[in-house]
Amino acid sequence: MFFLFILGMFLLIVGGYFYGKFCERVFGPDDRETPAVKSYDGVDYVPMKSWKNKLIELLNIAGTGPILGPIQGILFGPVAFITIPIGCVLAGALHDYFVGMISMRNNGAQVPKLVSKYMGNTMNKVYNIVIWLLMLLTGVVFIYTPGDLIVNDILHMDINSNVIWIVYAAILFYYIISTIFPIDKIIGRVYPLFGAVLIISAIGVFIGIIRDGGANLHNLTNTGLLFAKHPTGQKFIPVFFITVACGIMSGFHGSQATLISRTVKHEKEGRGVFYNMMIGEGLIAMVWAAGAMILFNSGTDVSTGATEMVGIISREFMGTVGGLFAIAGVIVLPITSGDTAFRSLRLMIAEQFNIDQKSAVKRVVLSLIIFVPAIAILFFAKSNADGFNLLWRYFGFTNQFVAVFALALITVYLKAHGKNYWISMIPGFYYTFIVASYIFHEPIGFGLESRLGLDPQSYTISYILGAVFVVLFYILVLKITSKRKDEIIKLDKI
Question: What is the top-level taxon of the source organism (predicted)?
């Protein structure tokens, strides 16, 4: 299995390099003025250096998903070492690149506005509900997760004590500041420090894995070469792809790519900023998945919570001091995604209702409107015994559902412009099947098999309905493109 891990890393790096260049050729970046230059406003449209954009993009998209997701995903077996790189290269990185570049060609427009332009107002209304909910849930999840890590692993205190609310308040205060102030004043200055922590912690765990030499890197249940029997009997398809999420594909990333599309100085920097940074997230996911597998095979209970596993893995591979540093890196990840989630939500709402964001007063008022429901959701999640689990499951599903909209948008754009649209159409088919079959089967959705008196572990009906929705996805994309092609070409020439 150590060979499989190394093979996966190779596929991710080499495959990402060549497929990234292919995606770049399909899109065709040129020397036109970017939004950062053309629409400079000193707040959201601010030219920044390429290395800084890359680092901010990586930190924006790398929430707890590429760590907590793979830790849980490895319970499905070593197949994770193949599905993570292949999915990341062919779907996740492609998604991030094209959303970022299409946004750049539309003056840094947020995804809802892009959906309206390329797919029509009806689709925009549906998408707005889903994406605004995702941004709100993301922000709340990324207050809760780092807060608990700080109290439990740094302060070594009870996460149910009153101290947790002080920590939540401190994180929320930072989010408010970073949401309101110009992007280069707060985010652009603190992210290099955060980035160093993130990269060093990932490297530290990777060195620990290599030092182990693969001795404990084998199938958890010895039930086959690639697959393991999941402890709770969950199906690899679709649950694995909902669980791992951000390490392979994430709709949330689209909101972050459009944010950074306003700070990139040259279109040809896009592949490095958008595509390659998603490959970087895939590497992080691989490292933590391997670390979890080694620890599970060394005797750690497979029922151990993913958040708790972060501390165990960090201390095992980096020692007490290094472990604290690694934990700090994991704390950095959600914080550096939560702040931009709220910022993106502010921009989306402002864009939808034409609220001028050059005015500091309007930015403050709109931000306060956003943070009120966020605080209410946080209070519910912490007060209710199953509140956070419920919140996290809906977050995971919504994240992938949003990605389906983005893949449809990309496909319409590419087909309308006579480009190779199958590169996004095929991932669109796959993730439509994943989200449809998941929500039809799971109790948080329709729970069809259980309601119909079938085996709760069976996906028979849900798989059939998933396939039906794949056909509907295909028909819808073709219909929208046929109807809007001339208008799209005309608008994109303006």
Answer: Bacteria
pLDDT digits (tens, 9 = 90+) for 19-68: 999 999 999 999 999 999 999 988 789 999 999 899 889 887 876 778 88
Q: Which residue did the predictor score with more confidence, 69 or 24? A: 24
Q: For the chain, give the mean pLDDT.
A: 88
**pLDDT tens-digit map of 188-217:** 566 666 677 777 888 888 988 888 777 777
Can you give the C-alpha Rg of the chain in angstroms? 21
Average pLDDT on 413-427 reads 97
Residue 253 counted as domain residue? yes
Write the pLDDT tens digit of every residue in 327-337.
Answer: 877 787 777 77
Instruction: Dump pLDDT digits (tens) for 156-182.
Output: 888 888 899 999 999 988 888 877 766
Containing structural domain, residue 248: 2-390
Residue 466 pLDDT > 90: yes
Record the pTM: 0.89
3-state DSSP of the chain: CHHHHHHHHHHHHHHHHHHHHHHHHHHCCCCCCCHHHHCCCCCCCCCCCHHHHHHHHHHHHCCCHHHHHHHHHHHHCCCHHHHHHHHHHHHHHHHHHHHHHHHHCCCCCCHHHHHHHHHCHHHHHHHHHHHHHHHHHHHHHHHHHHHHHHHHHHCCCCCCCCHHHHHHHHHHHHHHHHHHCCCCCCHHHHHHHHHHHHHHHHHHHHHHHHHHCCCCCCCCCCCCCCCCCCCCCCCHHHHHHHHHHHHCCCCHHHHHHHHHCCCCCCHHHHHHHHHHHHHHHHHHHHHHHHHHHHHHHCCCCCCCCHHHHHHHHHHHHHHHHHHHHHHHHHHHHHHHHHHHHHHHHHHHHHHHCCCCCCCHHHHHHHHHHHHHHHHHHHHHHHHCCCHHHHHHHHHHHHHHHHHHHHHHHHHHHHHHCCCCCHHHHHHHHHHHHHHHHHHHHCCCCCCHHHHCCCCCCCCHHHHHHHHHHHHHHHHHHHHHHHHHHHHHHHHHHC
Q: Is residue 314 part of a domain?
A: yes
The reply to whether 459 falls in a domain is: no
Per-residue CA distances from 132 to 22, 345, 361 (Å): 32, 6, 22
Provide the domain count of the chain: 1
- Tokens 């958040």, residue located: 307
> Which domain CATH number covers 318?
1.20.1740
Domain presence at residue 438: no
Cis peptide leading into residue 238 (ω within 30°): yes
